[in-house]
Amino acid sequence: MVDIPNMRPSILRKLHENLAEPDYAEEFLASLASYLASAAPDGGVDSDRLNVVGLQLSNAKVWDYLKPADVMKRAGHISSEVLLTFTSGMPDAVARSFLETRVRDAAE
Q: CA of 87: how far to CAs of 3, 17, 18, 20, 61, in Å?
């Protein structure tokens, strides 16, 4: 498992390259889904960490390889607070994709 909230700069620099490998991408996706499913924003440090993880993943161009819908599908139900905190610093198109997936899943 990838330790999502504690990724070191060396891991983040190679993340885009590593996600091109299907096995690593699947492991990363499972780790991210698990992290989001268990995240509990507290309005403080935990919320900041969740936001920073979203920023780091966007800066590492993770969304070139992983689809927000796949993350949401694997994570199951995550709170709106988690989703909004995680996506708040992402590019608009990516954040919108996460939120649209959430709305679509809720309608089904």
A: 19, 22, 22, 23, 14
Question: Is residue 66 a part of any domain in this protein?
Answer: yes
Task: Say how far apart CA 56 and CA 45 lie, in whole Å.
Answer: 16
Q: Is residue 79 in some structural domain? A: yes
Whether residue 1 lies inside any domain: the answer is no
Token pair of 11, please? 């891991």
Q: What is the pTM of this model?
A: 0.89
Residue 76 counted as domain residue:
yes
Q: Tens digits of per-residue pLDDT, 45-103?
A: 899 999 999 999 999 999 999 999 999 888 888 888 999 999 998 999 999 999 898 88
Question: Which residues, in sequence order, are CB contacts of 73 under 8 Å at separation 6+?
Answer: 105
Query: What is the tally of structural domains in the chain?
Result: 1
Q: Which domain covers residue 44, as residue numbers?
A: 7-107
